[in-house]
Design goal:
mainly alpha, 17 helices, about 0% strand
């Protein structure tokens, strides 16, 4: 659905230029690539706006997470994957949630339900992000019941909750129809379902494995997610019995934990052959918020702390860009990380080859592509 407008333009171009009208010729692939680039950009923009709902200056955080995570790779080098669209829909969902939670009006809850359905349609795993607003809403309802005299109950109440559920079902209906036509039941294909072990035996490996771990491929993610701990101190929202700032931080942390749980439950958790732990790209907006909170805390503490954070961030961004180059030109094993070898190539081999690589990129780009026999 997200790619459809771009795909339609690709179809028009194919028909007017004489390219094969088969859905896979160059105009169609180019259209999808442009679509992913745009949605990746919108994901970062919405993440920045979501952080601003918490009174955080997140422009630098958005730039850092764009350049320092696999989102960049799946926007420009492998755009036919769904991950840029996934980052967009989750960022949209979080932005809507942070707007809606101020009043929980029925209209806002309808928008939240629709955004949640769109998010789940892009990737089933992203449906688990609804845990954040669900906990937040339940928490607020409970607080309102205890403090009803102060008008603390959500404006929407149970009617708003039902409206959100109806909106979710209505928007999700095309996906239900697709499931029934393709799979004969509501849910993913058996080839996906059979890969799940819901005991999450790989939860630690998916984060810390030297060959495939998310935090090894993307160390900036560890810094950004750790920054959520600083959110209650740095965000400035209206007070509540527990503190709205702390409540938002805990809900965001619940989102992260569920994504780790799901990622660790997939038997193909290594995503070998892919660039990085691509399933965690959906956390882009959460990471932008966490990094922005950490940066605010560092600035408040001392100029030295902020300078240290910037230095580490630059190093993490370079690591991501270097791995991107190594992966693209075949300088690394695409099935796994080899941290020592990758680090050597990042800081020794690539700088030595930089002039020739730049020349090839600008004037002989075809040299990067080798035909398979």
């Amino acid at each position: 659905m997200l790619w459809a407008p771009f795909y339609a333009i690709g179809d028009l171009v194919a028909r007017t230029t004489g390219a094969p009208v088969d859905g896979f010729s160059r105009p169609y692939i180019a259209a999808v690539a442009y679509g992913s680039a745009l949605y990746g950009f919108l994901a970062v923009a919405l993440a920045i706006l979501a952080a601003r709902r918490l009174d955080l200056d997140a422009f630098g955080a958005g730039l850092a997470l764009w350049l320092g995570t696999p989102l960049l790779f799946y926007m420009y080098i492998a755009p036919p994957f769904s991950h840029a669209c996934s980052a967009f829909t989750v960022a949209l969902f979080i932005w809507v949630w942070l707007r809606v939670r101020e009043r929980w009006s029925p209209r806002g809850l309808i928008a939240l339900g629709a955004a949640g359905a769109l998010m789940a349609m892009v990737r089933e795993q992203d449906a688990f992000f609804v845990i954040g607003p669900a906990l937040d809403y339940a928490w607020t309802v409970w607080q309102g019941a205890r403090r009803e005299a102060r008008g603390a109950a959500p404006e929407g109440g149970w009617i708003g909750m039902m409206a959100a559920a109806i909106a979710f079902i209505a928007v999700f209906t095309p996906q239900v129809a697709t499931y029934l036509v393709l799979n004969g039941h509501i849910g993913p294909h058996a080839s996906v379902a059979r890969k799940m072990n819901w005991a999450a035996p790989h939860a630690l490996q998916v984060l810390f494995s030297p060959e495939h771990g998310f935090f090894i491929w993307t160390p900036l993610a560890l810094i950004a997610l750790a920054g959520l701990a600083f959110l209650p101190a740095e965000a400035t929202l209206a007070a509540s019995p527990l503190g709205v700032k702390k409540q938002a931080a805990l809900c965001l942390a619940a989102m992260v934990l569920l994504q780790i749980y799901v990622g660790g439950s997939v038997e193909s958790w290594t995503v070998a052959g892919a660039f990085g732990q691509r399933r965690f790209i959906a956390l882009t907006a959460v990471m932008v918020i966490g990094y922005a909170a950490l940066a605010a805390a560092a600035r408040r503490r001392s100029p030295r702390a902020h300078t240290a954070l910037v230095a580490v961030t630059v190093l993490c961004v370079y690591w991501n860009l270097a791995l991107t180059a190594e992966f693209a030109i075949g300088l690394m094993d695409r099935q796994k990380l080899e941290p020592r070898k990758n680090a050597y190539d990042a800081f020794v081999t690539l700088p030595a080859q930089a002039p020739s690589l730049l020349y090839r990129y600008l004037f002989d780009r075809g040299s990067f592509y080798q035909r398979r026999p």
